[in-house]
C-alpha cells in the first residue's frame, strides 16, 4: 500500500505487527480509531512464526498456550486447536557419557527433581532467597541431597550430569541462563493454571490468521522499519529507514525487549528517562531456538518423548562449543520424521554462525557419537530453523526477571510499561510481552499488553 494515501486521517501509530500490535489494532478497529501499523519485516506475527510442513505447520516461535482464562485460549477452543494426544512425560531417555542412565539412578534422581521443583516454586516467594538464581538454589539443594546418598564415583558423575540437564530444562523453559534466572520469576509469573496447552498441527497458524483477519491489510505498512520516534513537538514524528516520515497523536511501541536494548538510544528523541532506560537494560532477554531435524524415517522408538544428552563424548576441544548446548531432542507429536533440538545457552549464537550443511554435520556427529551405544542413528536429510538471536527485529527469544532486575528492588516491568505523557496525553505507549506483569514471555501477555495500551489511548480520547 501507499502510506501517503491514508495518512491524513491517522492518529495512532503502532510499531510492530506481532501479537501485541495486532491486538491493539483490532481494538482500534472496534472503536473506530484511526491507526497505522508499521512492520519492519515482510510478515506479520513477529515471534509467532508458523511454517508449512506436510499437513500442518511447525512453529519456529511460540507453540504452547499458557493459561485458560484468556483470549488466546478462547481462540484455541473456538477453532478446535487442542492436540488430541499429549507428550508422554514418562518416555524419557537420558544418556550420560554415551551410556544410558539406568533405573536405579532414575529413581534416585526423580525423588530429587520432584521435591526440588516444589521447593523452588516456594522459594520464589521467600524473602530470604527470592533474589537468588535458580542455578544457585538448585546447587544448594543438590549438594545437600548428595551428602545423604551413598553412591560410587561413576554414579555421582551421572547425578551431576542429571543436575546439569535439570538446570538446562529451566533454561529452555524460561529462556534464561539458569545462573541469571532469578527465583522471583516463579512468584511473579502467573497464568492461573499449572499446565500449558499443546496444540494440533494447525495450532498457531490459525491463531495468527484469526488475529490478522481483524486488521485490514491496507492498515499495515510492511517492510516499514521505524528508526526514530521524535516526540519533541505536538505531534509524534515517526521516521522510517527509507527517510519517509509521518505524524501521529500517539504511538504504541511493541518492539521486542531485545530490540529496545540495542536501539533505545537512537530510537527515541528525546532520550527515554533514566529510570525506563535502566529497567530496559536490567530486565533479562533470552535467546532460545528450535532446530527441526528432518529424517527419512524415525530412528527413535515409538513412545519416546525426550532424549537428553549430557557429559558428551566426542570433540571436547573448545569450551562454549555448540555441542555442549545440544542436550534436548524431542520427537514431534504429529510430524513423525521430525526430531526437534531445543537449544539454549550459547547454542543459538554458535548455530547462527553455521550454514545449514555445517550445522547438519555437527548434529549428525553429535547424535551418532553420543547415542551409538543406545540407537542406530540415521542421517539428517534437512533442517528447518529460524535464528531469533540474529533476527534484526527480535534479537533474542523472550524476557525474564534477571538477577540485576531482582536485586534493584524496582518494578522493572512497570517502568518499561509506563507511558510517556505530555499534558496527560499518552504520547508514547509501550506494549509487548515484556510489559505484562504476570504473563511476560508469552503470546497471552503480548496480546493483553496491546489491548491495554489501545485502551489507554482510547480512554484518554474519551472514546470508550
Ligand atoms: C523460540 C520461541 C519459542 C516460544 N514459545 C512460546 C510458547 O510456546 N508460548 C508462548 O506463549 N510464547 C512463546 N514464545 C514467546 C512469544 O512468541 C512472544 O512472547 C510473543 O510472540 C511476543 O509478541 P510481541 O507482540 O510482544 O512481540 P513480537 O512478536 O516480537 O512483535 C514485535 C513486532 O515488531 C516488529 N518490529 C520490531 N522493531 C521494529 C521497528 N523498528 N520498526 C517496525 N517494526 C518493528 C517486529 O518485526 C515484530 O513483528 C516463544 C518465543 C520464541 C522465540
TrEMBL record:
Residue ranges of domain Amine oxidase in the record: 19-457
UniProt GO molecular function: oxidoreductase activity
Superkingdom as given in the UniProt entry: Eukaryota
PANTHER family listed in its UniProt record: AMINE OXIDASE DOMAIN-CONTAINING PROTEIN, FLAVIN MONOAMINE OXIDASE
Protein name: Amine oxidase domain-containing protein
Source organism: Caenorhabditis briggsae
Amino acid at each position: 500500500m501507499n502510506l501517503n494515501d491514508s495518512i491524513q486521517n491517522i492518529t495512532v501509530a503502532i510499531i510492530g505487527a506481532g501479537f501485541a500490535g495486532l491486538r491493539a489494532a483490532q481494538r482500534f478497529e472496534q472503536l473506530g480509531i484511526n491507526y497505522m501499523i508499521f512492520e519492519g519485516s515482510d510478515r506479520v506475527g513477529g515471534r509467532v512464526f508458523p511454517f508449512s510442513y506436510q499437513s500442518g505447520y511447525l512453529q519456529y516461535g511460540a507453540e504452547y498456550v499458557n493459561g485458560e482464562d484468556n483470549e488466546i485460549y478462547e481462540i484455541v477452543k473456538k477453532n478446535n486447536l487442542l492436540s488430541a494426544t499429549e507428550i508422554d512425560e514418562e518416555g524419557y531417555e537420558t544418556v550420560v557419557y554415551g551410556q544410558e542412565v539406568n533405573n536405579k539412578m532414575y529413581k534416585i534422581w526423580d525423588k530429587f527433581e520432584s521435591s526440588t521443583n516444589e521447593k523452588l516454586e516456594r522459594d520464589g516467594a521467600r524473602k530470604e532467597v527470592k533474589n537468588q538464581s535458580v542455578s544457585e538454589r538448585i546447587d544448594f539443594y543438590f549438594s545437600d541431597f548428595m551428602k545423604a546418598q551413598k553412591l560410587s564415583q561413576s554414579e555421582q558423575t551421572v547425578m551431576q550430569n542429571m543436575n546439569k540437564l535439570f538446570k538446562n530444562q529451566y533454561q529452555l523453559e524460561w529462556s534464561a541462563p539458569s545462573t541469571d534466572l532469578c527465583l522471583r520469576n516463579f512468584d511473579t509469573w502467573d497464568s492461573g493454571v499449572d499446565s500449558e496447552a499443546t496444540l494440533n498441527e494447525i495450532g498457531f497458524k490459525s491463531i495468527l490468521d484469526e488475529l490478522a483477519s481483524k486488521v485490514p491489510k491496507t492498515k499495515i505498512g510492511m517492510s516499514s522499519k521505524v528508526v526514530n520516534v521524535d516526540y519533541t513537538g505536538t505531534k509524534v514524528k515517526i521516521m522510517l529507514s527509507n527517510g519517509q516520515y509521518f505524524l501521529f497523536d500517539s504511538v504504541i511501541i511493541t518492539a521486542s525487549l531485545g530490540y529496545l536494548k540495542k536501539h533505545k538510544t537512537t530510537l527515541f528523541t528525546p532520550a527515554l528517562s533514566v529510570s525506563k532506560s535502566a529497567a530496559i537494560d536490567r530486565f533479562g532477554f533470552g535467546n532460545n531456538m528450535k532446530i527441526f531435524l528432518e529424517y527419512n524415517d524415525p530412528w527413535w522408538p515409538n513412545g519416546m518423548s525426550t532424549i537428553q544428552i549430557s557429559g558428551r563424548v566426542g570433540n571436547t576441544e573448545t569450551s562454549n562449543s555448540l555441542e555442549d548446548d545440544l542436550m534436548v531432542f524431542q520427537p514431534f507429536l504429529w510430524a513423525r520424521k521430525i526430531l526437534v533440538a531445543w537449544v539454549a545457552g550459547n547454542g543459538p549464537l554458535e548455530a547462527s554462525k553455521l550454514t545449514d550443511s555445517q550445522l547438519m554435520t555437527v548434529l549428525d556427529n553429535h547424535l551418532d557419537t553420543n547415542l551409538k551405544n543406545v540407537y542406530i542413528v540415521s542421517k539428517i536429510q534437512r533442517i528447518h530453523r529460524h535464528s531469533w538471536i540474529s533476527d534484526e527485529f527480535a534479537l533474542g527469544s523472550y524476557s525474564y526477571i534477571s538477577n540485576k532486575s531482582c536485586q534493584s528492588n524496582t518494578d522493572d516491568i512497570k517502568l518499561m510499561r509506563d507511558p510517556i505523557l505530555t499534558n496527560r496525553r499518552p504520547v508514547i505507549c509501550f506494549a509487548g510481552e515484556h510489559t505484562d506483569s504476570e504473563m511476560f514471555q508469552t503470546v497471552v501477555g503480548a496480546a493483553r499488553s496491546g489491548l491495554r495500551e489501545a485502551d489507554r489511548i482510547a480512554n484518554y480520547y474519551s472514546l470508550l
